[in-house]
Each structure stands twice: as structure tokens, then as C-alpha cells.
Specification:
Radius of gyration: 20 Å
Strand content: 25-35%
Strand order of the largest sheet: 9-8-7-10-11
Oligomer: single chain
Helix content: 40-55%
Largest sheet: 5 strands, mixed
Shape: flat
Number of helices: 9
Order of helices and strands: EEEHEHHEHEEEEHHEHHEH
Distance between the termini: 49 Å
Structural class: alpha+beta
């Protein structure tokens, strides 16, 4: 079963998966994608993006995020917004890198593939937590299942962070990514509805937005939403006080 239609430049294909469940494949139309690839390629070649052109391109790529790709791409818009808001001009190495990423994704015909009726998916509750020394943990609840894990941030990852007095915000965000990766590996999150609780407001804000002005945190938020999209998760993030975070006791009692 397959049916395809196009709405406002977004191609929507309705199909069934191996379990005969209806799914939606969302992608930017080929015509739009080719037009955007041409504009991005020209800017990369010239190492310059005129103000009017970068403003239009940011709007188009934001449409791409909202209509089909979802939050994972928002982190790659940050440098482009900075360039647009500063009046356009010469392209920095960081902006060029993001433009190359957008070009590659458009050429690869990146798309989203989601359940047609996510409300029928089972619900899971997850908690994440981190400590200032890089210890991470998470808990998963669904029906009678009660799972948790504890781990520590690899040293090479910690050393890749920008030097600062504390890395707790980065560790809290990494704990979310670790939860998604760990429980996905155990086949617990595919096409699931998930409510996730985090006890750090700064990390929560960046994750909800899908981007951060802090470069290393921006990359972690990108990783989080890539995992969400990759596994077809319908997720909502909420804050919870540390004193009520279910994952705090395991972190304080278990040694790695």
C-alpha cells in the first residue's frame, strides 16, 4: 500500500511497514531541494552570502526543519542565523561546514519516516541524571518493565568540551543522549511515545529548542534529536526537581 501527494513543496508518502502499520514519509520536494542545493553551492564556492540571499535561505531551511526533518537540523541553522542577523557577508569556516552539511543532506534526499498514528504507540517514562564528575545514568519505565543504567563519560569526550569551571550542563545533556542510545539498543524505544524528565533547566531549554549558542552543547542537542528521529520516537521533555528525580538514588549508590 502506498499513496503519495505533495503539499506546499513537501512530498508525503503514506505506506505500510513490515508490521502492516501505516507510516508517513516526509521529504522536501525534489524541485525545492535542487533549487536550495544550487544556492548553497554558489555561496560555498564564493565564500560569501549576500544579506538578502542568506535571509531567504535561512527561511527555506527553517521550513525544511518544521515540515519534514524535525528538530535534528535546527542545530545546523545556528551559524546561518548569526550570519543573516549580522547582514550577511563572508562565510566563516563554521558556517561553511554547516552549509556543506545542509547540501549533503539535501543531495541524499533526507526524510522523516513516522507512524501515522503515534497515539496508538505504547508510552514509556524515562529519567536522566548526571554528576559533575561525568557520571551518567538513566531509568526506563513502561508497564511492568523497570530498567536503569549507569555509566561514565569517556575521557576523550570530556576533553573535547570547551574549558569551563563546570561541565554539568553538558553532562546533563549527554545523560539524555545516553538514555536514548542505551534503551534504543535494547529495543525499547522504536516508535514509542516517551515522556522524559530532566532536572537541569539549562540542558532542558537547549534540548527543547533543538539548538544552543554554546557550540559543544549545540552538538549534543543535535545528537539527541538525531537519535529521536532515527528511532521514530515521539518525545516530550519536562523538568523535574533533583529531589524528585527517580534516577538520583542509583547514581549515588552505584560505583562503576
Amino acid at each position: 500500500y502506498k499513496r503519495q501527494l505533495e503539499i506546499l513543496g513537501v512530498s508525503i508518502t503514506v505506506h505500510r511497514d513490515s508490521n502492516v502499520r501505516l507510516r508517513l514519509k516526509l521529504e522536501v520536494s525534489l524541485c525545492k531541494a535542487n533549487l536550495w542545493i544550487s544556492g548553497i553551492s554558489q555561496a560555498i564556492e564564493n565564500k560569501y552570502f549576500p544579506h538578502k540571499d542568506i535571509q531567504k535561505m535561512v527561511g527555506r531551511l527553517q521550513f525544511c526543519c518544521a515540515s519534514s526533518w524535525g528538530p535534528p537540523a535546527r542545530a545546523r541553522l545556528r551559524s546561518l542565523y548569526i550570519l543573516a542577523n549580522s547582514g550577511g557577508g563572508s562565510i566563516s569556516p563554521a558556517t561553511s561546514q554547516d552549509l556543506e552539511w545542509w547540501k549533503a543532506q539535501l543531495l541524499a534526499r533526507r526524510h522523516a519516516d513516522i507512524p501515522a498514528n503515534v497515539s496508538l504507540s505504547p508510552l514509556a517514562i524515562m529519567y536522566s541524571d548526571a554528576e559533575g564528575n561525568g557520571r551518567l545514568g538513566g531509568a526506563f519505565f513502561s508497564g511492568t518493565e523497570r530498567l536503569w543504567f549507569s555509566d561514565i563519560t569517556p575521557k576523550d569526550v570530556t576533553l573535547s568540551f570547551h574549558p569551563r569551571s563546570t561541565q554539568i550542563i553538558l553532562f546533563e545533556a549527554l545523560a539524555v543522549a545516553a538514555c536514548l542510545e542505551t534503551f534504543s539498543l535494547h529495543q525499547k524505544l522504536r516508535d514509542r511515545r516517551v515522556i522524559m524528565f530532566i532536572d537541569n533547566m539549562s540542558a532542558l531549554g537547549a534540548i527543547r529548542r533543538g539548538y544552543s549558542p554554546i557550540l559543544d552543547l549545540n552538538r549534543v542537542t543535535e545528537l539527541i534529536w538525531e537519535l529521536v528521529t532515527q528511532h521514530g520516537i515521539a518525545i516530550a521533555f519536562y523538568w523535574e526537581p533533583s529531589a524528585l528525580n527517580y534516577d538520583d538514588p542509583p547514581l549515588s549508590l552505584i560505583h562503576i
